[in-house]
Specification:
By secondary structure, this protein is α/β, with parallel strands linked by helices. 43% of the residues lie in helices and 19% in strands. The strands form two sheets. The protein has a seven-stranded mixed sheet. A six-stranded mixed sheet has the order 9-10-8-11-12-13, with helices on both faces. The protein is flat. The two termini are 16 Å apart. 40% of the residues are buried.
């Protein structure tokens, strides 16, 4: 990848809309863009005031009579831009064709089509953001909930980097003291074992606190992966519709109506639930398509954060219920005792005695086709309690991706090795603490390797 040429890309989604933005970044961004931009004032792009929108005509390269669109154009000169380079942004009318045509004209004038995440990668290289900020920018784009958006915004504003840098500073204070005591033994007293133990235990505790925040951070970012399972015709699709307040899934009295996984996002207390309605699980299946749906349901159980086990309270428990209950062993599960608006054959006590579910994890609901559902609010409250959603504070920062978590684990392991080595020569501790500094630096990008950078920015869209 060339890092100092001029790149261009459409920064907004393709499709009909009010505005589309074409972004150009690099030393020649003004020169390249001038080939397709004619300002209403007659000024060259190099003469425009930085960070100010200017009404302009957009035309084909080298032919001012071949008008393409009318747009607002801004120049943001280095280093005061997103990438740290001079950036030109063309805000044209949104549409399937106009933005693409303007981009192609810019490419014909010497710009190169940006690679995925290349604008943000240049921002990282030019010191405009660190790795936590870059990843947070993508998390904001992908956010599906208010709490997830808030956490990503906190990280983007430097809250996580600040915590990481504080821990690195604590470690560097120890390593610098060790070095000074070795180099200047007559002037600097070495730390005592007790002092080192106290400092390292505090550092390990700070790292552990961030590691422990990962599950919450992951849920805030990705949502709670929730699978709805049960026998055919117990009301799984009706439950999905009731939770999403929509007619997302087809509901009939015919068993086996749902054959493929249906996905929907809902929000509970600011967090996102990724709801998956699955095919009804039964023992005897002659339809190959339905069997594939059942297999997918069983696979989704394995990877789910939360399982909603729906049981028809009007029907006796069957071997299929036993099969599903066994598959849910060890999973976070809420049992939905559905259709309780009719005469019940099953009670929560029976479910507890038969399958071992706690009564607190059994919620009675009814989801009649033409009436208002009941028990949905109680179910949402139980989900919120399960994941402590009411305790999540909007001002806190949570580690939200595996890369960050893994680096923290490596750092803690190195600190713990240093802890176990207290009492030995301090220069041996120095090696472990240097490893901890390196692992923490991977999170912010201070010591990150090229392949990690490639991995991070590969998940970005082209225009970001």
């Amino acid at each position: 990848m060339k890092m100092f040429d001029t790149i261009a890309a459409i920064a907004t989604p393709l499709g009909s809309g009010g505005v589309a933005i074409i972004r150009v970044s690099g030393a020649d961004s003004e020169k390249v863009s001038q080939n397709v931009v004619k300002t209403k004032s007659g000024k060259k792009l190099t003469e425009l005031e930085s960070h100010k929108l200017t009404l302009s005509d957009i035309h084909k390269a080298g032919d001012e009579s071949a008008s393409v669109d009318q747009a607002l154009v801004s120049v943001m000169r280095a280093p005061h831009s997103y990438t740290g380079e001079t950036v030109v942004e063309i805000n044209c009318h949104g549409g399937y064709f106009a933005a693409g045509l303007i981009l192609n004209e810019l490419l014909s004038c010497g710009a190169r089509l940006a690679e995925a995440g290349e604008f943000t990668r240049r921002a990282f290289i030019n010191g405009k953001t660190d790795m936590t900020g870059a990843e947070a920018a993508m998390d904001i784009i992908d956010s599906t909930s208010g709490l997830g958006l808030g956490n990503a915004a906190n990280v983007l504003n430097g809250a996580l980097a600040e915590k990481i840098n504080d821990i690195r500073q604590d470690i560097m204070e120890i390593t610098s003291h060790i070095s000074a005591a070795v180099d200047y033994p007559d002037e600097v007293d070495p730390l005592t074992d007790e002092e080192v133990l106290e400092k390292l235990n505090l550092i390990s505790s700070k790292i552990s606190e961030l590691i422990d925040s990962f599950e919450t951070g992951r849920i805030l970012r990705d949502g709670i992966h929730t699978v709805i399972v049960g026998k055919p015709n117990v009301g799984k699709s009706s439950l999905l519709n009731a939770l999403s307040r929509s007619d997302r899934a087809i509901v009939t009295d015919i068993p086996g109506t749902t054959r493929d996984t249906i996905e929907e996002y809902i929000n509970i207390k600011g967090a996102s639930l990724r709801l998956l309605d699955t095919a009804g699980i039964r023992a005897e299946v002659s339809d190959e398509v339905e069997q594939i749906g059942i297999d997918r349901a069983m696979e989704n159980i394995k990877i789910a954060d939360l399982c909603l086990f729906v049981i028809d309270s009007n029907s006796k428990l069957e071997p299929e219920d036993e099969k599903i209950a066994k598959a849910l062993k060890g999973k976070t599960t809420i049992v939905i005792l559905n259709k309780t608006d009719k005469s019940a054959e099953i009670t929560p006590i029976e479910l507890k005695n038969r399958f071992g579910f706690e009564t607190d994890d059994i919620v009675e609901t009814s989801t009649p086709k033409d009436k208002t559902p009941a028990g949905i609010e109680k179910l949402e409250e139980r989900i919120a309690e399960k994941f402590a959603l009411g305790t999540i504070k909007s001002g806190e920062v949570y580690v939200s991706n595996t890369r960050q978590r893994d680096s923290l684990v490596k750092a803690r392991e190195s600190v713990d090795l240093a802890l176990n080595g207290v009492g030995m020569p301090f220069d041996l501790l120095y090696v472990d603490l240097e490893d901890a500094l390196s692992a923490l630096g991977e999170i912010t990008g201070a010591t990150v390797q090229e392949e990690i950078i490639d991995q991070v920015f590969s998940r970005f869209c082209v225009g970001k």
